[in-house]
Amino acid sequence: xxxxxxxxxxxxxxxxxxxxxxxxxxxxxxxxxxxxxxxxxxxxxxxxxxxxxxxxxxxxxxxxxxxxxxxxxxxxxxxxxxxxxxxxxxxxxxxxxxxxxxxxxxxxxxxxxxxxxxxxxxxxxxxxxxxxxxxxxxxxxxxxxxxxxxxxxxxxxxxxxxxxxxxxxxxxxxxxxxxxxxxxxxxxxxxxxxxxxxxxxxxxxxxxxxxxxxxxxxxxxxxxxxxxxxxxxxxxxxxxxxxxxxxxxxxxxxxxxxxxxxxxxxxx
Amino acid sequence: xxxxxxxxxxxxxxxxxxxxxxxxxxxxxxxxxxxxxxxxxxxxxxxxxxxxxxxxxxxxxxxxxxxxxxxxxxxxxxxxxxxxxxxxxxxxxxxxxxxxxxxxxxxxxxxxxxxxxxxxxxxxxxxxxxxxxxxxxxxxxxxxxxxxxxxxxxxxxxxxxxxxxxxxxxxxxxxxxxxxxxxxxxxxxxxxxxxxxxxxxxxxxxxxxxxxxxxxxxxxxxxxxxxxxxxxxxxxxxxxxxxxxxxxxxxxxxxxxxxxxxxxxxxxxxxxxxxxxxxxxxxxxxxxxxxxxxxxxxxxxxxxxxxxxxxxxxxxxxxxxxxxxxxxxxxxxxxxxxxxxxxxxxxxxxxxxxxxxxxxxxxxxxxxxxxxxxxxxxxxxxxxxxxxxxxxxxxxxxxx
Lengths: 268, 400
Prior knowledge:
The structure holds two protein chains of two kinds.
Chain A: H1 3-13, E1 18-24, H2 30-42, E2 48-51, H3 62-73, H4 78-91, E3 97-101, H5 103-109, H6 111-120, E4 125-128, H7 137-145, E5 149-150, E6 152-154, H8 160-169, E7 174-177, H9 190-201, E8 208-211, H10 217-226, E9 229-232, H11 234-242, H12 248-264
Parallel strand pairs in A: 1-2, 1-9, 2-3, 3-4, 4-5, 6-7, 7-8, 8-9
Chain B: E1 12-13, E2 16-20, H1 23-39, H2 43-57, E3 63-65, H3 67-73, E4 77-82, H4 92-105, E5 110-115, H5 119-131, E6 134-140, H6 141-146, H7 148-156, E7 160-164, H8 171-184, E8 189-191, H9 202-210, H10 212-225, E9 231-235, H11 240-246, E10 256-264, E11 282-285, E12 287-291, H12 317-325, E13 328-334, H13 335-349, H14 355-369, E14 376-381, H15 389-395
Parallel strand pairs in B: 4-14, 5-6, 5-8, 6-7, 9-10, 9-14, 10-13
Antiparallel strand pairs in B: 1-2, 2-12, 3-4, 11-12
Helix pairs in contact in B: 2-4, 4-5, 4-9, 5-7, 9-11, 10-11, 13-14
């Protein structure tokens, strides 16, 4: 069984939702990435999404795009991202690690090469933002062979037939995009999200994590009550961007802590 | 021989094309594909399209025999398809009229567009004004600086121009930003892409709307030249003017098709915008798989060309297919060669061509000199050069 699946099952027994923070590899500098990842885990992260920097991140908002630009300035691309992931694995064997990125860097280094590198780095899952199921059957098959989960996005506009199609290819969990827009966009409508998550559950037994637009502890808590996982990306990346170098770790710690406390509190 | 019927239902031209977008855009693309296939053969829609092309754009555009240029080169006869005489001064308007009419049929009150040099932005703003649609144009902040007359033109036409500060601040970043707008405002917004790139159905749809150019040539060439051309030459950035004139000729196997990319300062310098000629690797950008200028780890690299309209790291997927299948060939022309052809056409024929088009002219001239007087070259004169006079003057050391 995959580490991602085991983690969701354990949390479910405790009636808890997974806290899944996102950072971009190499932002603000490659030497910060592993310590930031450890900070995330020490402060409640149940799994980590690590972004692969890309020059043209179409589905991301300005905050994550700027993180990509900073990382690329530091010369961190897909290979260094995987190296950083591997460095993290040397300090942490347990926490599921998911890479999130775009198709072109993966194809540029070669799909076979990519898969063998991430296998060696013990990465647990991959989200390829611009690989819809129709264009990624072969890729998913090869990941499956290596027991690496393929995580797909679902959006508020995804129709029922398509939910079925995606759920069939996906493993690990389904990533529900809570709003029409890019990462870090406007506030979300929690009732709408709740309804859509329930609808997805009709077609799939996979855990459902919700992301894009979770910006404060209150929203994190509300989302955690209606889903199996809460992805927090732009809010953390923004904290990194706006902090002085020496304050990055303490500020991220504080932010993670506030999200975690809110998600764990049982009061309404 | 099997008729040419690409793309397939998923938008693939062999291994190229397709739909490489985030799930958030799939619904919008499904809707667009459905509506386009509903209207593309609809007699009412086509009547409206052709009526606007005739009365608003001024089609058909003439084909002109460039007699003095032909004499100067001393070889094949050179004919020019005068897309520069269209309303707004380029071929771009054919496609924007088609897409805007489709937006209207789909009940979308707002259109958005990306633009590099500003020609597609101006064409979109123009048709949006004509149809009473709200119009927002995304333009890299570097291009906003370089192309201020076109920015003002768009504003005069009632459009909002949004400068894009991300990435390299040029066309590709404007395209990224327009896609983000579309994802966010999908329900009331139609995205008018300006070239034969983007996810399916855009490469097919933009080609279809622009193929009015080549269809007219099929009728006009026998009249004016007593034969179909031996060679058709067109410049290629994203490749919409080239696809527009190539497409109806694909099945005319004895007509050679040649696309001319921007070699910038020279392919060997790396400062160019010629993914096909420079044998770049195949990759995925802006929703399709195609030849793409990128580094070894798949980051898109900055391009260079004297003409903003050719300054794009990718190329429409159908061109990648035509190259690999051998049906078309691709060459590249450097900045200085294009400028020389620009000045030459001004003086010899009394036509100021766009710098993009000047790349096609430069190659056609070289080619003509090596061909016989019985042979015929047809060049797509895709746009007029009024927009480029500041650039040309600057290079010549003249301040206007």
